[in-house]
Amino acid sequence: MSPVHSTMALDSPIRRRRVSPTPESLFPECPDDLSPKQVAGNLAPVAGQRGTISDRTTPDCPPASPAKQRTPDRSHSPVRNFAADPSDRARARLVGIARLAAASPPAETRRKSAERPEYFVLPVKSILNRCDSERVPFEWTINPYRGCEFACKYCYARYTHEYMELDGGEFEKKIYVKKDAGPLLAWDVAHKYSYARAASGGTHAEHIAIGTATDPYQPAEREHGVTRACLEELAKREGLSVSIITKSDQIVRDIDVLQRIGERSNLAIDITITTLRTRLARMLEPRAPRPDLRLAAVKQLSEAGLAVGVSASPLIPGITDREGDLEAVAAAGKQAGAQWFFSGVLFLMPSSAKQFFPFLESKFPRLVQQYEKWFGRNVYAPEDYRKKVAERVARIRQTYGFRSGPRFENKHAMGCTQMSLEWDAAAAAKEMERTADTRGYS
Fold it and tell me: Where are the domains of the chain?
């Protein structure tokens, strides 16, 4: 039996130079191997059809707003919460999740590729993690893995590896598989979850977001099945409020259990599609499934009667924001059966910027100066740019008849009645953008 599913329950900031003012316009230089309209009208078959926190500082919860961020004091802190250099890490007194990670044994894998990541079994004590921030629309997160093999260049979640005293660049190289997910989640929901959300006056259940800091359907899921184990537990309950976000068409494997959850609880599925251009997607998201495969997954989920929408986040200035590109993603999503659509602008936390700027210098050198101007002293793009994007997204929704988020029906929850609710996914993305330290959703 796999050690992951035993029967036991249980700062190196990037250096940026000052630059002189440059025009506000950006000059995209994106590969155009295939027209967005061609992709929108040609969905590929879905592959693999065989049968994302305990306190406010948890890595599963978006970090505090930039105004609250402080540079850690390396000289006086007895316990380091920043990523250390290897020489420093060897002498560090590891505690908490860093100690668990350092002692985690290798996880079994059938993969033989030399490029595969290292897998480890992480013996966590909880799967349902609390997120107390009032600026995000969920109280709980489930992240079945730590790290993500998709290796998205812009990924904001790289900071989570720093909690384990690992560099953010190892986010896609060292994947930690959470052990005993099913039994742990059963206990968590029974003892920690509330069907009377305080923010709603007790009329709605607390919301569980799956995949806030890792993709729950990355390649590791094929072997270790942690996400499936979690979903099987949620399917036993009634009256929950759950959302899942992924870039992977592998989610169609779990349509059966997703339907069971959807029959008894509120379930929303978001498929992230940042661009329809295959070559560009491969550059930005090296190991994620192609955009057409994700669209095909949207179609199959919709046809299965599941509530599904499209996230075009992050919108990357000068790269994925060309006129017509965002609109093409929306049109393709609508054709595939998506019910809602949203997009938020890229933001760059230090751990993300450390990876993103070298990529930018290599692939889009003409954009470096503009990015240094915009992100040199701020994790966010200028407010006027973000406002224009928000207005553009609003026009897209109106054009294609999208909602801003899922419309939840009344569901009976054990001991309480679930009221009608429409979750504003756009507002959710905006709040995550404000509270983390990079583009959060995607």
Answer: 3-7+19-65+80-435
